[in-house]
Design goal:
about 450 residues, six-stranded mixed β-sheet, disordered N terminus, 8 helices
Length: about 450
């Protein structure tokens, strides 16, 4: 029989890497993505033939690999809103989900969308321009979203004579900045996406560089989530009660395990009610199992007949999250309409949605230099700031630094369901001391 330790090892040895690309306009991001797909043999024949035809019609000698992503730019020119383009490809060593995010400053919110689930972010820099304002902005977003690995791809090295000193200066400046933000791991790679240097194949022009190519790093960067170190979190999505002759008394709570491990016989607490019970059984794919782990979808049965409904959170009694009605968080505002102090919103956390009020906006982050603008009164599209939100009912929130899944939430417009902001609970490098929350005597006063 397979031991629990061996089961954990099998889960940790994942073959999937989620990564996001970011870079300023004209830094060559489209060319890098195209080169990566082309040289890893991930482009369909008809796609490549179409690129070759268009390139030839423009008088170009070689295929313009940036055209593999030009469809998105054409759509944007037609006025169609594009959030993030996802691309799926694989090599013999690993499968990849690439979130290709727009580079312009006005699309900062789109990078938040793409990088929110990423294990790695590739930040592109033009070797001729070095670290610029947008580079710092992308590093700040990656740090806020707790992306564990960041790759600095110094592109267009062919246009600076493949000079080691140019690369070293940019790498040193970016590494110092990103490290100050709290980015845990930074890998700098000199590349030429146009010529293919150090993208998939090692460069013959930079013998002074002994590190991995972009693809080699993507294939070998460790992506493991130690499930034994994460407290179990099980948001209930649906209550199953067949009430049939075969299952007259069956009561199960279905959902996807957000983090950690659930075991039969484990004492658990149902939040926000605080009622306790013991896991009597776990059903997965129609079979009873003794253990289940994230991100499996399972049905949990408890020994006690207690009130559990959609939106409740089942967690180990030994390590439950704290419940609160005062959510202090960093948010990225993604809607065109402003988010103002006093706004009535809905807050969606895992499977739970409750009414809330924006009680305070203590500060807005200036990503250019990481300075704080105190008490801005409102946040507009692409702004990142600290907020204090008062909820109508308690929420079981982890700190985002501890769990990207149960530490995140959305603020939603109750009138039309528009997503207003993406939030990260707890402290961040942009946090400030909390100021006093003033009472609200009208409307949704909780």
């Amino acid at each position: 029989m397979t031991s629990t330790t061996e089961q954990f090892a099998d889960v940790a040895a994942t073959t999937l890497l989620r990564f996001a690309t970011a870079g300023s306009v004209d830094d060559g991001k489209s060319t890098l993505v195209g080169r990566l797909l082309h040289d890893s043999k991930s482009v369909l024949t008809d796609q490549l033939e179409a690129v070759e035809r268009v390139s030839a019609s423009r008088g170009q000698d070689a295929p313009d690999l940036a055209l593999l992503t030009d469809g998105l730019r054409a759509e944007r020119e037609q006025g169609i809103t594009i959030d993030v383009a996802y691309r799926y490809f694989a090599t013999a060593r690993r499968r990849f989900i690439l979130a290709d995010t727009p580079g312009h400053v006005q699309y900062t919110r789109n990078m938040v969308t793409g990088a929110s689930t990423a294990d790695l972010a590739v930040v592109l820099v033009d070797a001729r321009n070095g670290v610029i304002e947008q580079t710092r902005r992308h590093a700040a977003v990656a740090a806020l979203l707790r992306v564990p690995h960041v790759v600095l791809a110094v592109n267009k090295m062919d246009l600076v004579g493949y000079e080691e000193q140019v690369f070293a200066k940019i790498a040193e400046e970016f590494t110092a900045y990103a490290s100050d933000l709290g980015v845990p791991e930074i890998t700098a790679i000199p590349i030429s996406a146009l010529a293919g240097d150090n993208v998939v194949e090692p460069s013959a022009h930079m013998d002074w560089y002994g590190g991995p190519t972009v693809l080699e790093h993507l294939e070998t960067v460790p992506v493991s989530h130690d499930l034994t170190a994460c407290p179990a979190r099980f948001p209930v999505q649906y209550v199953i009660r067949p009430q049939t002759a075969e299952h007259p008394d069956y009561r199960g709570y279905a959902g996807q395990i957000a983090s950690g491990v659930l075991r039969v016989g484990e004492a658990v607490t149902v939040l926000p009610s605080g009622r306790t019970s013991v896991i009597a059984g776990i059903d997965a794919l129609g079979e009873s199992v003794d253990i289940a782990w994230a991100p499996q979808s399972v049905t949990v049965r408890l020994t006690d007949d207690i009130d559990v409904s959609r939106g409740d959170l089942i967690a180990p009694s030994a390590n439950p999250p704290a419940t609160t009605q005062d959510v202090i968080a960093t948010v990225c505002h993604v809607a065109d309409q402003p988010l103002a102090v006093g706004a009535r919103v809905l807050i969606k956390h895992t499977t739970r949605t409750v009414k809330a009020i924006v009680k305070e906006i203590p500060s807005r982050l200036t990503l250019d230099d990481l300075s704080q603008h105190p008490n801005p009164g409102q946040l507009v599209a692409n702004d990142i700031g600290r907020v204090v939100v008062r909820t109508a009912e308690p929420l079981a929130l982890d700190a985002y630094a501890d769990s990207r899944r149960t530490g995140s939430f959305l603020l939603i417009d109750p009138a039309d369901g528009t997503t207003l902001a993406a939030g990260m609970a707890g402290e961040s490098f942009a946090s400030q001391a909390r100021t006093t929350v003033q009472a609200d005597d009208e409307g949704w006063d909780f």
